[in-house]
From TrEMBL:
Catalyzed reactions per annotation: heme b + 2 H(+) = protoporphyrin IX + Fe(2+)
Cofactors, names only: heme b
Family assignment from sequence similarity: Belongs to the DyP-type peroxidase family.
SUPFAM superfamilies: Dimeric alpha+beta barrel
Organism: Goekera deserti
Name the record gives this protein: Deferrochelatase
ATP-binding is among the record's keywords: no
Coiled-coil residue spans: none
Protein keywords: Heme, Iron, Lyase, Metal-binding, Oxidoreductase, Peroxidase, Signal
Length: 374
């Protein structure tokens, strides 16, 4: 129920122990006026500081003003604790230059080279209407109403400057980002996040997650966010035998142990054989995703979603995959390319795609989201 500190060297919501609920939103910037954009980011920062501390979005509040004033908070979080609310902002490639090369806000020479649209991958079925965007906000909280309230109020503050392009609700974290957390299960019923990068391992985070000072100055201490809405073919998965499911993932469903080992956190041994076969099949998800074979590591922070059903009697369900890395090319893209022959591909399909550069954390009381960029 507590509050997570909003300020710091890095933005909260990346290595913060993953909360249980997500409201993710991607915006198009609709103004052409750079000053309006800056003013909105300043107003957002003030409101984000307040809401992550459990306060109303504005200083008057939902019911603190006059009877004939429009309230500066929408009210549905009145009386609710922040429940670990974090708000994380990111800037998409199109904020810097449009697809046809227009420098919209004089930021073109500030665009970090790695911030480019992701390539397409085998099996993708990307819906452009829920992909991309100029600015994203990731709200995570242990209370869904708190996360939704935060996004709603920030979108409201941006009226005339931004419009919502697409958004995604997530329930049930599919990753842990701290060694203090239990590993949750995804919609395939498997523990997910066992071998994730964790907050406690700071040297690995410096190596794989935080952008160094060799890139654009304004991004040092930041990170890149990749978001992929991955539809899971639940009904098909549910007809697979337990053995097939475990061979697909490369871990035991009950314990989460790597196949051939006993306990969840036992190290994976890709050389181990059982009856002349590799215990962890070379086509399994874990085999192909593991740093030994992908040559890299990412911090996963995704959530399960069920967006009702699809009109054909199937759940429109899956994993809203989010990962953080210091460079998308050597992070998500490299792992995803290595997963091209993943046995799990039979059961999943990526339906949206986006990439954002997340600036470092807000530090002093006058600092605001993106100050060093503008
Ligand atoms: C590991 C599920 C998509 C990268 C795992 C594990 C499960 C899992 C159950 C094993 C537990 C663990 O170590 O966390 C899924 C499901 C997905 C999905 C259900 C889609 C619906 C992806 C994607 C990527 C990815 C798109 C990256 C491109 C990884 C990595 C590991 C992992 C890096 C850790 C491997 C290791 O070090 O052993 N995933 N995953 N996963 N997954 Fe996924």
């Amino acid at each position: 129920t507590g509050a997570v500190e909003f300020t710091g060297a890095h933005q909260a919501g990346i290595v913060t122990p993953a909360q249980d609920r997500l409201h993710f939103v991607s915006f198009d910037v609709i103004t052409e006026d750079r000053d309006e954009l800056v003013a909105m980011l300043q107003a957002w920062t003030t409101a984000a500081r307040r809401m992550t501390a459990g306060l109303d979005a504005g200083s008057v509040g939902a019911v603190g003003g006059g009877q004939y004033d429009v309230p500066d908070d929408t009210g549905e979080a009145l009386g609710l604790p922040p429940a670990g609310l974090t708000l994380t902002v990111g800037f998409g490639p199109t904020l810097f230059t449009t697809a046809d090369g227009v420098d919209r806000f004089g930021l073109a020479d500030r665009r970090p080279a790695p911030l480019v649209e992701l390539p397409s991958f085998r099996g993708d079925a990307i819906d452009p209407a829920r992909s991309g965007g100029d600015i994203c906000l990731q709200a995570c909280s242990n209370d869904p109403q708190v996360a939704v309230h935060a996004i709603r109020n920030l979108a409201r503050l941006g009226a005339g400057v931004i419009s919502v392009r697409w958004s995604q609700l997530g329930f049930g974290r599919t990753s842990s980002t701290s060694t203090g957390q239990d590993t949750a299960r995804n919609l395939f019923g498997f523990k997910d996040g066992t071998d994730n990068l964790k907050a406690e391992n700071t040297s690995t985070l410096d190596q794989f997650v935080w952008v160094g000072d060799d890139d654009q100055d304004w991004l040092a201490g930041g990170s890149y966010l990749v978001a992929r809405r991955i539809r899971m073919r639940i009904e098909q998965w549910d007809t697979a035998t337990l053995n097939d499911q475990e061979q697909t993932i490369g871990r035991a469903k009950g314990t989460g142990a790597p196949l051939g080992q006993q306990a969840e956190f036992d190290p994976v041994d890709f050389t181990k054989q059982v009856d002349g076969e590799f215990a962890v099949p070379q086509t399994s998800h874990v085999f192909l995703a593991h740093p030994t074979n992908s040559g890299t590591a990412i911090l996963r922070r995704g959530y399960s979603f069920v967006d009702g059903s699809d009109g054909l009697g199937r759940l429109d369900a899956g994993l809203f995959f989010i990962c953080y890395q210091r460079d998308p090319a050597t992070g998500f893209v490299q792992v995803q390319q290595n997963l091209r022959d993943d046995a799990m591909n039979e059961y999943v399909q990526h339906t949206s795609s986006a990439v954002f550069a997340c600036p470092p954390g807000v530090t002093g009381p006058d600092d605001w989201w993106g100050r060093a960029l503008f």
